[in-house]
Design the sequence.
């Protein structure tokens, strides 16, 4: 196999970032689900999910809005975020 063939056969990994407002038991449960996904389907499909709790729902809203508005020091917008529909 040449170097060129190795590059063709290497699959690209897709990284997905998820922001949420979970804490305590909810956060632990969701983290276990993310770990299970990463170890099974994610590994098979070359997808890696990174879960990031932003605190409570108000903290999450503030982080999303700061990112969307491009405020200095704001983190890059995640691929997904979980919030209430009316937030």
Sequence:
């Amino acid at each position: 196999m040449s170097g060129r063939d190795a590059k063709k056969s290497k699959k690209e990994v897709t990284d997905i970032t998820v922001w949420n407002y979970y804490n305590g038991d909810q956060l632990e449960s969701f983290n276990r689900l993310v770990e299970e996904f990463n170890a099974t389907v994610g590994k098979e499909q070359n997808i890696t999910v990174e879960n990031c709790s932003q605190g409570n729902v108000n903290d999450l809203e503030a982080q999303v809005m700061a990112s969307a508005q491009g405020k200095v020091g704001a983190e890059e917008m995640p691929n997904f975020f979980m919030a209430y529909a009316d937030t």
Q: What stands out?
A: The chain has a mean pLDDT of 89.
